[in-house]
Amino acid sequence: MRLRASILAIAASLGLSMAAPAGAQEALRIRLNADIRSTDPGVNRDANTDGLVWHVLEGLVALRGDATIAPMLAERVDISADGLTYTFPLRRNVRFHNGQPLTAADVAFAMERYRKRETNWRCRGDLDSAVTRLTAVETPDPHTVVMRLEQPSALFLTMLARPDCGQAGIFHRDSLNPDGSWRAPVGTGPFRLGEWRRGQFVELERFAEYAALSGEPDGLAGNKTPMVDRVRFTIIPDDAAARAALLAGNIDVLPDARTRDLPDLRARPGMSVHSSPSFDLQIILMQTTDPLLRDVRMRRAIALALDVPELVRAVTEGSSRPARAPIPVGSGFHTPAMSEVPARDLAAARRLAQEAGYRGQPIRIVTTRRYEAFYEIAVLAQDMLRDAGINLELEVIEWATQLQRYTRGDYQMMAFGFSARLDPSLSFEMFTGPKATQPRKAWDNPEVQAMLDASMRETDPARRRAIFEAMFRQLMEDVPVVALYSSVTHAVTPASVQGYRSWAVDAPRAWGVRVQR
Amino acid sequence: MRRGPGACGCSAEVLSYVLKRLLVALPTLLLVAASVFFLMRLIPGDPATVVLGDAATPEAVADLRIAFGLDRPVLVQFALWIERALGGDLGRSITSGEAVGPLILQRFQVTAAIVFASVGLAVLIAVPLGMLAAWKQNSWGDVAAVAAATFLLSIPSFWLGLIFLLVFGLWLGWVPVVGYVTFAEDFWGALHYIALPVATLALIETGVLIRMARASTVEVLRLDYIAHARAKGVPEWRVLARHAFPNAFAPTLTLIGLIMGSLLGGIAVIETVFTLPGLGRLLVEAIFARDYPVIQGVMLLIAVIYVVVNLVVDLLYPVFDPRVAAG
């Protein structure tokens, strides 16, 4: 009898603990596929870290959905006629999470930390390069920041807005320990950092005094009003478990659903799929210093033997469009010509390979199974190139090893993917440069390098567009890489979630999203 | 024949034995530490490159390697690490910046809770079942037990875990699909979260233990002293419990020790499927990220676990098999 009573008591307790804790209904729960690395903006980071940080910190400028730049903490940006002086009048009503008002001194303090070598800020080198060199950050009055450059740069504001640079987020000095090391972010964003339980979740709390801009949300800019009291990023590494968690109601947003799960998820009542093309790029790299691939005819033969539309359709199950240019379709600099994919021509491929002296020797393509798309690209390329008599051998290695070999340029061919680049110059720069100093670069052409440098200095959009078109034409001539496609991000939400949208950068945004259970 | 402590029941002797064993384990631990340290550095892949990703410039990689202390000669790195480790400082994680010691202890608690519960459950199910199967050898019950054990052995743990998630989490909604709380925070909540991983692991290990318990009992039941006990008219339950069990359990105990050592070292697949922040997931993520300090710390802990578990098994051996102590 006592045993039975105990069992009933245990069952009742279990039943009680099954009920959600008080207040949990006000939280928006979003899946995160891995833990964040830190909360230090643009320092110890990855895509998840950037996506968490942009809820807490804001920069002077921010990225719109179309990768153009908008003012954020700055009221506007005034650029001098010579392009050397950027003046940022600050918005007056902005407060940090600790209640302190935002001042120009705070901006100068944050920028000083970013520019220190020991901070290891990811973008320090980009703001101290031959193309973009920030020479001074001045504070003529408490509400104005002036930044001076050595020479005009089309990329300066993009650098400040880049998510991987932590948006050069402005933090209060309370974010640092007395010894100057990073403690926790005290920013101006719509959410403040709540609890970070490593390996389990990161919880953010609504910042009640958030000074939202008017209008609509737009990328990381615009109106970022928080609509929920709490946001919990729940770490679920396994895709199948994440899908089950969504269906069981344990999470509200699955921001990165697998393409293969979409038909089933779409068929479920109340589930909405939010798809958006990303600014990333999936690509096949070719080592132009390799004895065989040094001959441009051999590289052209490989490109002609690939049935790119079919490859992209198979790998993405029809969700992405093939593109041969590195500039993503969503960019204002993408032209229709960049979407035109040359037809597969096996006869021409065979002829070119023969002219290049190819005699059936194996060419190794490096790939990994960490990212299934890379592996599938390599397998399909192997099959397609076989039709043209080109013998591709797969070398499947672990991701960290592949990354190291990419950095050293240690490959013949490689199935690879670049994370989102937000300016066309950066889209080309990711694989263009001198191999002598940067072995990871696939395209080492001094003329192209000159064009790239010019595109970074040129601020007139029309002239920049002309430069990018010329670079694209040269890319199709030189074929150091075969660009394939930009992936599409699919997020899935139940009927209880309103206002969620996917976007070009592959991490979720929680502002403007409501939950009504 | 093993020579274990406890023959005289003298606690001083046991203590001296334990200390001696731990002292003997020190070179083993040093060897493990050195092997892991140098092997990890032989593997291609660089932590700085992984942290920086596809935009890693040579200058940024060099800066980060200096920040991580990887620019120094490997022997110097090893000497520094050993020196700090002896002082109780296992360094800081390259990826998260956390102190490695507290980090692995925190993760170990999660893994240990699941492993102890699941192995305990598996022993409670498997040992009686295996013994009964042996007692009724070749009966339908024996065949069923062996078939069940073989079936459980053949199931991949991730698959069983996903099926449990689907049935109990998704269809029946009895348990949450993701999440974890510690027992200190919420006892019933913690039970709730670990129920499925414990059930999954217990079932898998039950298969192994049934086979071992059955095999060793079959062997013991054939011995002369069992026939002698039966001839004396000792009741069958007493033959099993009093005479067969102690001898038959001893090999199973060794197996339990090995299982415990292996599982406490990490149940990465189970932890990944059930989203548990345990030691196995930490180790796998650290290997992917080439997070040397975490890998070294976890491997050292695993070596310590094996030493301790083997020691505990050896100390328990005479309890079940007096011949060990007597020998």
Automatic annotation (TrEMBL), chain A:
- What is the species listed in this Swiss-Prot or TrEMBL entry? Falsiroseomonas oleicola
Protein name stated in the entry: ABC transporter substrate-binding protein
Signal peptide range in chain numbering: 1-24
Q: Where in the cell is it found?
A: Periplasm
Alphabetical list of InterPro entries matching this protein: Peptide/Ni-bd, SBP_5, SBP_5_dom
- Write out the entry's keywords from A to Z: Signal
Q: Which family does it belong to?
A: Belongs to the bacterial solute-binding protein 5 family.
Q: Which segments constitute the Solute-binding protein family domain?
A: 69-435
